[in-house]
Amino acid sequence: MVSRLAVxxxxxxxxxxxxxxxxxxxxxxxxxxxxxxxxxx
Length: 41
Prior knowledge:
Blueprint: no helix or strand
């Protein structure tokens, strides 16, 4: 079950929140999302 819906769409060079639109979570699913790494270390 989704605990909350997206409030603001995010679209940039590396990310687009619209790619999550067709995703339908199942009971018990856990989604962990992080920002992409940019640059080198």
